[in-house]
Amino acid sequence: MDKTETLNIPGHGWRRRGAALLALALGAGVLADTAPAQSPADWLTGLQGQGAAPGAGAESADVEQPVETAHVSMVARLTADGEEIAEGLVWRVFWHPPGDAGRPTLIATKQDARPTFKLRVGDYVVNAALGRAHITRRITVKGGEENPAAEEFVLNAGGLRLKALVAGAEAPSNTVSYAIYSDRDQTDNRRLVISAARPNLVIRLNAGIYHIVSTYGDCNAVVKSDVTVEAGKLTEATVTHSAAKATFKLVQRAGGEALPDTQWTIQTPQGEEIKESVGALPTHILAPGSYTVVAKSQGREFQREITLANGETAQVELVMN
Known about the structure:
Layout: E1 3-6, E2 18-21, E3 27-28, H1 40-44, E4 69-77, E5 89-95, E6 105-110, E7 116-120, E8 122-130, E9 133-141, E10 149-154, E11 157-166, E12 169-170, E13 176-182, E14 192-197, E15 202-206, E16 208-216, E17 221-229, E18 234-241, E19 244-251, E20 263-267, E21 273-278, E22 283-286, E23 289-297, E24 300-308, E25 313-319
Parallel strand pairs: 4-10, 11-18, 19-25
Antiparallel strand pairs: 1-2, 1-18, 3-17, 4-7, 5-6, 5-8, 8-9, 11-12, 11-15, 13-14, 13-16, 16-17, 19-22, 20-21, 20-23, 23-24
């Protein structure tokens, strides 16, 4: 059963507050995963500049014209009343000259739970990221303070852990991967958050609704579902895949040896291409259903219609006539 609960995960300040059930309606479908995932800095800031900038601390100070600097410490929490995040944080500080309409420049990066930056007095953009959870906001550095100023960032984030089942049992290792997409925006589009994620790992995400596309094998055994991630909580979701495994071979006579270097194409009855491969004995995991299998060898083409059932392991033989 899928559930959402507040857990005390070592090093991340997640406190136990109780458990709440979260039901997921999981359905089969097909969705291609082709888009590359973005970094946390790209998601919220769109800032890509690198290199030193005159807005940084001692490294960029003009030795002939001393400037006022200050120390700024930073801390992050999953929720406003949550504990400080103790590890896994990445901090990025961006700066640009006042009145400059160009993109700010990345001037400092630290991987620390509570970093302290030495910065010139002025305005900055800071990005704090924990996995795929992140927040970006502006800060103002003021001078004349004896103790370092403290800036607190609330990520409003939780975690997602996906479990994948095949035939009622946990999917074999490295056979299932999944992609996470954002909820639909005003233009009815989704943004890829992460691709090629593996089951049973905790993915840290900002609170919100996400679309999961889980793929078993390398073809069309796909499950899609929407899931809600709550701030400060770990959401656990289970997907169940329906699939069949088929091995294909082209022979000169029934029961004969498989011919090498055969080109294979698996299609739906409507002609939609599902998979292409080359070899004597390719094996593919397919969603249950009917298919047209086409084999090409020695300049000739052979075809066969097949139907696969859930949980079936089939040997599909095409005979050269």
